From TrEMBL:
<dbReference type="InterPro" id="IPR023346">
    <property type="entry name" value="Lysozyme-like_dom_sf"/>
</dbReference>
<dbReference type="Pfam" id="PF01476">
    <property type="entry name" value="LysM"/>
</dbReference>
<feature type="compositionally biased region" description="Low complexity">
    <location>
        <begin position="39"/>
        <end position="54"/>
    </location>
</feature>
<dbReference type="Pfam" id="PF01464">
    <property type="entry name" value="SLT"/>
</dbReference>
<dbReference type="InterPro" id="IPR000189">
    <property type="entry name" value="Transglyc_AS"/>
</dbReference>
<feature type="signal peptide">
    <location>
        <begin position="1"/>
        <end position="30"/>
    </location>
</feature>
<dbReference type="GO" id="GO:0016020">
    <property type="term" value="C:membrane"/>
</dbReference>
<dbReference type="GO" id="GO:0008933">
    <property type="term" value="F:peptidoglycan lytic transglycosylase activity"/>
</dbReference>
<dbReference type="InterPro" id="IPR036779">
    <property type="entry name" value="LysM_dom_sf"/>
</dbReference>
<dbReference type="InterPro" id="IPR018392">
    <property type="entry name" value="LysM"/>
</dbReference>
<feature type="domain" description="LysM">
    <location>
        <begin position="354"/>
        <end position="398"/>
    </location>
</feature>
<dbReference type="GO" id="GO:0000270">
    <property type="term" value="P:peptidoglycan metabolic process"/>
</dbReference>
<feature type="region of interest" description="Disordered">
    <location>
        <begin position="39"/>
        <end position="59"/>
    </location>
</feature>
<protein>
    <recommendedName>
        <fullName>LysM domain-containing protein</fullName>
    </recommendedName>
</protein>
<dbReference type="InterPro" id="IPR008258">
    <property type="entry name" value="Transglycosylase_SLT_dom_1"/>
</dbReference>
<keyword id="KW-0732">Signal</keyword>
<comment type="similarity">
    <text>Belongs to the transglycosylase Slt family.</text>
</comment>
Length: 401
């Protein structure tokens, strides 16, 4: 059973050779999904399953899409229509391995229902991304086994986010991180990066074979390539089901197929899936001026907690256009915030938010940190050739406008 990418993708966004060299180690840790630690297996509190928890934080993104142009309807129906592997695994060598995980997961239907409820804000959009790339619909369910669909999931090995991306891999894929921002926690950017990576590895190493790329996503291309060579030396074809891999990776694709099989026929397994509309769950609003999440929540008429849950990449309560390009807001709530960001606020036009008066003991670094801007930008905006010569009472502009 294989599925191949529909096209060869370009790898130039980080330099093909350098990027692939950086990504040979495992991209992710599969959220500790070894036996006994699976998020679906008998865990009375599935929200505490695979990784240490964090309180909702905040986010960022890339270009204004407005309301997402998803087809209306039921997200589960759309997902099932894109499943590509469900008729194949039952007759394949992996049948027993998949059936084992179907039995395991279906023994805890409430856990699956809880995780699918957590997927509600993201699933329709992720299905759209997977569909647009011509990938099997099953790929939209990778976050189930990686993070239990928790955008703030963190593993003890350092993997973070919905797709459990490791720091080094995130940097290679352009997911920057600092104390204000972590692109691995941003659902929009991390999803795009993870799908790019899955397709890129499939084309680079495996003639478009997505199953092998998923194995490499979990264990690293070096591990998978070595296992393929060993399988071929034994006279086997070297596809995923032939490989002798770490136990977590041996279970990786079977778990994915098992979850998809249950979602394909939830009644058969006693699972009740929450209603998830196929239409837009969120909209993306460009950040054109410095704005706090408290202010944005008030303008959009949503709770601060809800806005933080949608913007988990933002690690502080302030979005600045030099660090954050977009905010996500619930669908239907974008226009008031968009209008406010297009029109300078009274405090901004009077200079209250755009000017900082230097106090005794302050440094350019401390001022930049307090206002969530880069120190180099602050120096450039104010023409400071010697940033260490600030004087009390000196006024600094906090933007390039």
């Amino acid at each position: 059973m294989t599925h191949h990418t529909l096209r060869q993708r370009l790898y130039g966004f980080a330099g093909s050779c350098a990027l692939m060299g950086a990504l040979l180690p495992p991209m992710v840790e599969a959220a500790n999904l070894s036996a006994g630690q699976d998020p679906f297996a008998a865990s009375p509190a599935p929200t505490e399953s695979t990784s240490s928890r964090r309180s909702p934080a905040d986010t960022h993104a890339s270009g204004f899409w407005g309301e997402l142009a998803l087809h209306p309807g039921d997200a589960w129906q759309r997902l099932r229509a894109n499943f590509a592997w469900q008729d194949q695994w039952r007759a394949d060598a992996g049948h027993d391995r998949v059936q084992y995980w179907i039995d395991e997961y279906s023994s805890g239907p409430r856990n699956i229902a809880a995780i699918t409820r957590r997927a509600r804000p993201w699933l329709s959009w992720i299905i759209q991304q997977v569909e647009a790339r011509g990938l099997p619909g099953e790929i939209a369910l990778v976050p189930f086994i990686e993070s239990s669909f928790d955008p703030e999931a963190r593993s003890h090995r350092g993997a973070s986010g919905l797709w459990q991306i490791m720091p080094r891999t995130g940097e290679a894929l352009g997911l920057s991180r600092n104390r204000h921002w972590d692109g691995r926690l941003d659902v929009v950017r991390s999803t795009q990066a993870a799908l790019d990576y899955i397709e890129m590895q499939a084309d680079q190493w495996y003639e478009g074979n997505i199953e092998l790329s998923l194995a490499a996503y979990n264990a690293g291309a070096g591990t998978v390539n070595q296992a393929r060579r060993a399988a071929r030396a034994r006279g086997q074809s070297g596809d995923y089901w032939d490989l002798d891999l770490p136990s977590e990776t041996m279970d990786y694709v079977p778990k994915l197929l098992a979850i998809a099989a249950i979602i394909a026929e939830p009644d058969r397994y006693g699972v009740t899936l929450p209603d998830i509309h196929g239409g837009p769950a969120f909209a993306r609003v460009p950040v054109t001026r410095r704005i706090s999440l408290d202010e944005a929540a008030s303008l959009a008429d949503v709770s601060r907690q809800r806005l933080g849950e949608l913007n988990t990449g933002l690690r502080t309560g302030i979005a600045h256009p030099h660090q954050v390009e977009e905010l996500l807001v619930p669908a239907g709530k974008a226009q008031p915030l968009l209008a406010a960001l297009r029109t300078p606020s009274s405090s901004s036009s009077s200079g209250q938010n755009s000017i900082h008066v230097v106090q005794r003991g302050e440094t350019l670094s401390s001022i930049a940190s307090a206002h969530s801007v880069a120190m180099n930008d602050l120096a450039r905006w104010n023409g400071l050739e010697h940033p260490d010569t600030l004087q009390p009472g000196q006024q600094l502009t906090l933007s390039d406008r």
